[in-house]
Each structure stands twice: as C-alpha cells, then as structure tokens.
Design a protein that fits this description.
Blueprint: H1 2-6, H2 19-40, E1 53-54, H3 57-63, H4 66-89, H5 98-109, H6 111-118, H7 121-125, H8 127-139, H9 154-168, H10 176-197, H11 202-205, H12 207-216, E2 221-223, E3 229-231, H13 234-239, H14 247-263, H15 267-270, H16 282-310, H17 315-318, H18 324-340, H19 344-349, H20 375-404, H21 408-412, H22 415-433
Helix pairs in contact: 2-20, 2-22, 4-5, 4-8, 4-10, 6-12, 8-10, 9-12, 9-14, 14-16, 14-18, 16-22, 18-20, 20-22
Length: 434
C-alpha cells in the first residue's frame, strides 16, 4: 500500500505520441511562449489583487457567512478526529484502514483541485484553527504575535519538508499508527507555535494551509485589496502573491519532493539506491535532500543571475510566484490518477473506519473501479498539466520582468529562468512518462 499512497498509478505506455516527442514538444512550448511574449507583451498587464469583478452581494454574503465557516470547520475537525482515531485503533493492515487513504490521497492530493477551484479552502476549514480558538480563550494573548511576520514562509517550508519525509522516505509510512502519530505530533507542534505567535502563525507555519493558499492564487475566485470577493484571472491572482521571505524555499520543497517522487519510479533508483524499498530511511532521505538541492541550485542560480542583469535585489523572492503554477502542474500530473482511482478507497472504507463490521454509507462491499479513467486520458492530463504549468509560469515571470526592469535588461534577465523552466519541463516529463 505504501507504493500506492506515495505514487500515482496508470501506465504511460499508452501515451498518444512517442516519449521523445512529448519531452521535446513540452520544452518547445515553453520556449515558444516566451518568444511570443517577448514580441507582444511589452509592458506589465497584470494587476494583482487590484483586479477582479465583484460577485453579487448576496452570493458574497453566503460565502463569507460565519455560520457556514463554523459548519465547515466543525465537519473538518470531526473528520480529522475520525482519521486519527481510525489510525490508532482501526485495522493494522494498511489496505483495510481508512487513515492512509484519507490523509495521503483525499486530503493531500485532493487539496490541489479543491484549492485551484475554490481558493484557499484549508485556511477556511483548518481544524487546527478551530482547536487554537478554543485554547486561546484559556491562554490569553500570544506573547510573540507581533513577530510572526518576520518568520516569512520558512516554518511552512520546514513543515512541508517533514511531510515529504513521511510520504516519500520514512520506513513503514503506510502503517496507520505511523500516520496517526505524524498527524498528532504535527498538530501539537503547530498549536504550541500558534499559542506563542498567535493565530497568524497558521498562515506562515502550517505547510498545508500555505500550500492551499498559494494554489488558491490560481483560483478564479479571490479577494481584492478592498476585501471584496471577486471573479478574476488566475494570472492576476498569482501576480498578487507578495514576495514573502521563504516563499522560494516553499516552492523548492514542493517541486523537489514531487521530482524525487518521479526519481523513485525509475529503474535506476529501484535497482540501485532504492533496492531495499521501504526497509531503510537513509537512501530515500539522502535522495530527497539531493533532489531538493539540485532544484534549489537551479532556481537560485537562475534568479540570482536574473537579478544581477536587471538590478533587482532578492530576485529569488521576486520571481517565486512564477513557480507556483509549475508546482501545481507537477502535483496534478503526478497524482491525478491516484485521486480518481485509489481515492475511491477512502469512501469505501469510511463506512467502517474502525473495523467493527459497520457499513454506515453502504459502500463497504464496493471495489475500486479502475476503469473510471483510462490510461491514455491519464497520460494526456499529465503532459498538459506540466506544460500548462510551465507556460503560465513563463507568463508570470515575463510580466514581472518587464515591470521591474527596463529595455534590453527586461528581456535578457529572463533567459536564465527560462532555461531552468525548460529543464524543469523536459525533466519532469521524462521522469513522469519515461
């Protein structure tokens, strides 16, 4: 089961075009998009959080209703408690326990489409915020609430790295007790930090909330600077992401961990460093850190050169928003089939979460329908997700470049990051489809 929970499924043998053509075409699409932008997109057109058409007042009132928020948070908290309880007391056999499917697939993978479609949903329903609100009434004002902004997104990067270690490297990671233990330790750590730094901690330190918020930047729904709920272009939404400290670290962890997931599928890994599978933690951990280091060097090197050409300080933060759609594309490509196929197991096992012979929803006897999506569809979605993610990243980087630089520097400063994006596109497609 650990292999199922850690990787997407579906053979790539049914790719409609040869692998070499898919990889070449993906890189060419990114390059051609840049050439088109250089010719036609001379000045900055994106308006960030100033853009958007307000939704009707009645609809906005329903969406922002405190009652709806309370209901959603209550449901999320109850679901989280059931998953943890099932992990601790339910069947010890991973395929028979809902905890792994609910946490790794329905929550982690499902968070991507939910946030892309609806916005920063986890910030709205985060059960940790619900528990914190109750604890804060007892503990009073947080001692360091005025210092949380200085942390940037660095705590979230660490939290996401810890999750990546669990998902991709930790031995026995599919064990329901291990999963429940991680959720408990993670939750206690987040709550203790929030009691010190205040409610603002979750927007900086909860890796899951930060990831959902970044993905929500690509949603057609958002908020303008005046607080109005609006319908807007995802490009404007992503452009509105402020260059917070540590944002580059977050996107590097997201990209690098997904890339390492692809590496572990290769014959080289399975017959070499990963030959012992899930039995040891050393090689997977070193492999994960190694891939993260490669991604970090490529990104920081490219943005560093771009910054020197354009005279832009801290270019790694300036352009980090352009990597958000790339990370989203990688996530969709890697886990699309996992959510649609093995994600069905969550709802099947939810009928009897504790292994007591219940059938609460009448689904316990169901089997996963692996015909729900075909392998060719999976392959097409994988290619399109990666290529579209990179093309959108190129658009965001180009618009930012012509805003912060002038003349020839606005174009030439983009070359290093463009080269890295082409490498990411081709490398991502090869790891995924090869």
């Amino acid at each position: 089961m650990s292999a199922v929970l850690a990787h997407g499924i579906g053979t790539r043998a049914d790719l409609p075009v040869p692998l070499s053509l898919a990889v070449f075409g993906g890189g060419a699409a990114v390059l051609l998009s840049f050439l088109g932008l250089a010719a036609l997109w001379k000045t900055s057109r994106l308006r960030g959080d100033e853009a958007g058409r307000p939704l009707p007042a009645g609809l906005a009132a329903v969406v922002d209703s405190p009652v709806l928020t309370a209901v959603l948070r209550t449901v999320a908290l109850l679901a989280a408690l059931v998953v943890v309880a099932a992990g601790l007391t339910g069947p010890s056999d991973p395929p028979m326990n809902v905890a792994g499917y609910a946490f790794f697939i329905t929550f982690w993978v499902g968070l991507v489409p939910a946030s892309l479609l609806l916005g920063p949903v986890w910030r709205r329903v985060n059960p940790l915020r619900t528990v914190y609100a109750g604890l804060a009434r007892l503990t009073g004002q947080a001692p360091a609430a005025d210092r949380v902004e200085r942390l940037g997104y660095w705590p979230a990067a660490v939290a996401l790295l810890a999750f990546a270690e669990l998902e991709l490297a930790l031995p026995d990671r599919s064990n329901p007790r291990v999963i429940a233990g991680f959720v408990l330790v993670y939750s206690v750590g987040q709550l203790l930090a929030a009691l010190w730094f205040g409610a603002g901690w979750f927007a900086r330190g909860d890796g899951f909330e930060v990831w959902s918020t970044l993905l929500g930047r690509l949603s057609p729904w958002g908020r303008r600077t005046d607080g109005r709920l609006v319908l807007r272009s995802p490009l404007d939404g992503a452009d509105g992401q402020p260059p917070v400290r540590g944002l580059a670290a977050v996107v590097v962890v997201l990209l690098g961990s997904t890339a390492f997931d692809g590496v572990t599928r290769t014959q080289w890994w399975q017959n070499g460093p990963g030959i012992r599978g899930d039995a040891v933690v050393g090689p997977p951990t070193l492999g994960l850190l190694g891939v993260l280091a490669v991604v970090a060097v490529l990104y920081l090197g490219a943005t560093g050169v771009a910054g020197r050409i354009a005279g832009t300080p801290d270019a790694s933060a300036t352009y980090a928003h352009s990597v958000i759609p790339i990370a989203a594309g990688y996530a969709v490509a890697h886990y699309f089939s996992l959510l649609l196929l093995d994600g069905q197991s969550t709802w099947i096992l939810a009928s009897d979460p504790f292994g007591r012979g219940w059938d609460l929803f009448g689904t316990l006897g169901n089997a996963v329908d692996y015909r729900a999506v075909g392998t060719r569809t999976i392959s097409v979605v994988q290619v399109v997700a990666i290529v579209v993610g990179h093309v959108v990243g190129v658009v965001l980087a180009h618009d930012r470049a012509v805003r912060v630089a002038r003349g020839v520097a606005a174009r030439t400063s983009q070359y290093p990051l463009l080269a890295v994006m082409v490498v990411f596109t081709c490398g991502g497609l090869y790891l995924l489809l090869g």
